[in-house]
Structure formats: structure tokens, C-alpha cells
Input
Amino acid sequence: MPPKAHAVLSASSSHRWLNCNPSARLELEFEDSGSEAAAEGTAAHALAEHKLRRALKLRSKKPISQYDCDEMDEYTDGYVQFVMEQLAEARQICADPQVLIEQRLDFSCYVPDGFGTGDCLIVADKLLHVIDFKYGQGVLVDAYQNPQMMLYALGALRIFDCLYDIDEVAMTIYQPRRENVSTWTITVSDLKEWAENTLKPKADLAYKGEGEYTPGSWCQFCKAAVKCRARAEAKLELARFEFAQPPLLSDEEIEDILGKLDDLTKWANEITAYAQDAAINHGKEWRGFKLVESRTNRRYTDEDAVVQAATAAGYRDIFKKTLIPITEMEKLMGKKTFADVLGGLVEKPKGKPTLVPASDKRPSITSTGAIHDFTEIKGEL
Output
């Protein structure tokens, strides 16, 4: 199969170019290096597509990849089951719903040259359901006002709005490795209003490479992030605090810093990785720095030979046996068997109190309760 074309303003990067308009054009100057996680995700999508086609009694040849494993089988089975459940619900309100898999969607009437591929669409009277399979586990993805899903929905409406009487669009992120199934629903009229008044003007700026560089959480997967001056200036703005001791800062200053620390740390790590790669692989010399060998720990060159030599010398107590970790044990047994055999022997201890952004979905705890719980945890150690 020929490689898929990539739009300048892709749906998958829409969260970024909608917030930082010129970033789409800037990214074109950088190569897409790919990643192991992306390759694994592609393999999982291919397997999920195959299984869904078979469930719908369509012809399909099972793909084979180096990432095939029981875990991927289990998660893709769950995805297919979820889609079939949604299809059953659609059949209750529509006699002839359609299911489209890996459907190319054109939303170029709002986004110049805009197109993308929807994992699964269930089209019925009253409701269009857009389902996106996310195999990654690094970032929790929310369907609420998710621009990628909204673009897919706009592309689907261009095809089916005149064939079905669609009033609402449901958008679901199915992210099994994070146990995350997130659904958000919007009326067709509200979606089209967003497209005309928000999406279209910002997309026009982004396509031209115009607008303001605006650093934020959307920088995370930007190929240009490590060399972006606007992002660097935003991170270095913390230098105005001149590393003052926390008690000397105002509450407002501390709140400002807390909101930037995670991204600042990530940015610093990206700069380090970029500079190190340039030095190791491209001969770049950075003033004030040099390449050295990292510190390492000793290791056996041949464990079987070590066992023989130590045993021959009269030593017997040379082995240490430990249980495999819980996640590995669950994969070994399968979730159902694990629950039956070991469910009563596994517990999840209370976590230590941690300060996180208010947007975090975990329930908040009171400071008094946190002190009490933390005291209990310390007492158990």
C-alpha cells in the first residue's frame, strides 16, 4: 500500500494549530522521526480494523506484526465489543444505520486541504457517532470539545447530512490501556457554529503560517517545540523569580510557577536530548560541554558460567527468587483468571497526598484528611 498523505492542517494536530496557529507551517521544516509507541499504535489499529470487519461479516486478512501479544488481542477485542454495542443501540432508533471503518473524511470547506481518517463511524437518523481508538497510554485523551473528533464529525456530516436526519453528534475516545472511554455529545447546529466562527478563521491563519506563536500544553508533540523561541521565552520567564526562596514569593507567583513546572521540566529534558543527539550523532560541539561515557554498574558476562564457577567453589546460596509484578501476573493469567485466583490477595494502598492542577479528574481531598491519611501511611511503613 502507498503511504498515506498527510495534511498540513491534520486533524490529529488540530489542538496544536488551533491554539498556536503558525506551528503547522513551522513543523514542516522538521522530519517526522516516528517512535516505537507510534509503530505499536499503528499495529493495534490494523488489528482492531481487521477484527471489526470480521465482526461485521466483511472480508479481511489478519495483519501480523512484531507487537502482537495477548494484551493487544484483549484490548482490540474490547474495542470491537464496544463498537458492536453502539451499533445495537443505533439499530433501536434507525432501521438502516451504517458503519464505516477507516473512512477518509474531507473537511476542507472549513480547513484548507483538510482531511483525515476516522477509525469508526456509526451513522443513523438523529445521531452520528464518531469513535476513535487510542492505543497509547502516555496521555489521557478526553472527548470533551476534542477538535480532532469535531473535525472528523464535520467531515462525516458532509457525506451523510443529506442522507440521514442527524440532530446530534456523539464523539467517543476509546483508550483501553488507560481504562478510558470518554464520550461527548454536541448538536449539529452548535458544531457548525464552532466550525464557522472559531475553526475556519484560525485554520486560515494556520495554513498561511500567520498568527501568534502561543506556547502551552499543546507543544508536547510539536516537532518544532525544542527549537521554538516563543516556547523558550515562556519557560525562561521563570528566571524573573531569580530562584527566590518559596516563602519570599507571593501566593500568585507560586500559583503561576506551579502551572508551568511540569512543562518547564519536560522542555529542559527535550533541550538536553536534542543537544546530546547533535553531539553524539552529528559531531556538534557545544561550548562548555563535552561527551563522556556514562556511569555504569558491573554485570555478569555469562550467568550460566557464574553459576558453575560459584557452585564449584562450594557456594550454594546464590539465587534470589521474587514474585513477578502484579501487571505481569495479570497478563500471564488473563484478567478473569487473575481476578478469580488472586483478586482477594491484591490491594491498592492509598496514595500519598499530591498537589495537582484543578483539571485533574481525581476527587479532591481536604488538607486535614490528607494529613490524617498520610500519617496512617507513614505508620504502616
